[in-house]
Model the fold of this input.
Amino acid sequence: MLEARLQQANVLKKTVDAIKDLVQDCNFDCNDSGIALQAMDNSHVALVSMLLKAETFQPYRCDRNIALGVNLVSLTKVLRAAQPDDVLTMKAEDAPDSLNILFESSENDRITEYDLKLMDIDQEHLGIPDTEYAATISMPSAEFKRICTDLMAMSESVTIEATKDGVKFSCTGDIGNGAVTLRNHQVEEKPKENIEIELTEPVSLTFSLKYLVNFCKAQALSDSVRICLSNEVPLLVEYLVSGQSYLRFYLAPKIGDEE
Amino acid sequence: MGIKNLFSIIKDEAPGAVKESDIKNQFGCVRIPYTSHTSRSLQTKTTSSSMSIYSFLIAVRSDGQQLTNESGDTTSHLMGMFYRTLRMVDNGIKPLYVFDGKPPKLKSGELAKRFQRKAEANEGLEEAKETGTAEDVEKFSRRTVRVTREHNAECQQLLKLMGIPYIIAPTEAEAQCAVLARAGKVYAAASEDMDTLCFDSPILLRHLTFSEQRKEPIQEISVDKVLEGLGMERKQFVDLCILLGCDYVDPIPKVGPSTALKLIRDHGTLEKVVEWMKNDEKKKYVIPEDWPYEDARALFFEPDVRKADDPLCDFKWEKPDIEGLVKYLAVDKGFNEDRVRAGAARLEKGTKSGQQARLEGFFKPIPKTETEKTAHKRKLEEQNEAKKKRQKEEKKEKAKSKAKPRGTA
Done:
């Protein structure tokens, strides 16, 4: 039996909104430490990994491991009925056919209840090795989104190059080329706008902008984003939801045989 | 042709092995480009391979006239080759074409001859159906031989100009594709022919080269999952395919997909199945006189192919020779020059842009635990049971409603 109560429906709403364009159907794996989700997009280029820790919920109870096979489009339809500040409760039996979702308004006594049909999803899980990334960039999530959408206008792919001088996002398209360079930037009064770059060795990788722009939908979840890069491994884009709960995106690089 | 009814069996028994998706999701991988099968020469002709030059001809011919240029030479194969290759390149696929070589030769040689004779007879039959008179059949089959050979050469020249690599297999193109795919030189083998699975190609793509108008999803069949779903070793799987009826031997009368599956499951190997059939008192199944299943099996297990590390199997995607293409297609073959140039530009873009890697290249799937597997299997069986029950009931209903005399209802 699962029972998870979320003080702000918004957290789940935004999370699902951020991933529903990448993944259609996926399992929410619930166990006593929290609710996890791992899914690849159709073309197996991007991977979403979400973990909502038990602490994110108040209270959280899950006696047995349960996989909730959810169609995210349907879930979005249900979540649309929730106000951002509603208290959201999810309930499911041990071998559930449906997921019960309850919204309680914080302002009045309005209670909304939905039962969402579940399905069997035979899903492959990928083992993600712990990686020491060569470059880690923390920056405002809005800034990252701006860079991606701006460069998207020029080209399909962006080359991210991290050196000791800073991080350069550059692209080349039919109409010309463009680049954005960021450097370490810390202002005490405005910690939200800090840009931190940690680098152990220079990195240069090329990624599809289409996917990056898609990841940026998670901007609503968090003010800052962490981007981790190492040569010849997938890029990691991480948004912290609250506490230790996170939404991570992995993206396979483009391997250039450009000559 | 290929293997009869194999697809329906796979769909029922191992649904997890088949994935359908859009062409956009299929792209060659890191150093793992992608092989596409081929054009087939006459001897091994099957109408099933849609990428074959052959199918371009058939497709166009069924509409009436073939496409020709001013001097009357057929150009529809070049047209098809050019545009479908472009479509693949646009979607980030890097194709490698494998052409059929000679028909497979066995030690005995007998099978190969028989197989060839049969292919020729089939050919005649098909044409006879189309045109009606035996004379036409004769004429046409002769013409096809000649034309096909020229077409092969023309297509190879076109590919060369497009910068797309191709190799000529010693014998069966599918077998060669499978070897390359196994070695990781390409991501998958694309063919309509299900027997590519028997050659142990890890991934088979079907409907890849169907034209856009048909809006058919691409089927991705993973051989490992097929074997897992069927609960068989590769050897048994090949035996099953032979029993179902492959290109090399005839099917046994009265043995359909469900019987074949049952027989192999009950007896384990083809030898035992044959023995059982011969000893069966009722003589329900009659094995054709000339049924060299061992030879057929050998063809699947030891096809005459080049090893993947053979220098002849090296390939490289190159920049298209734009002027060469214009000269060949526009000047010699009467294509529209603007279109050729536009196509060449697309090709060039395709070779320039980096290859999108897949996550599987970096993260490995966590194998499922035994309990998960059995749970999944049980679920599957339940579903199949339910489906069969439903079908039975529907049949009953139908029979009932039919049994009622008319007008009384």
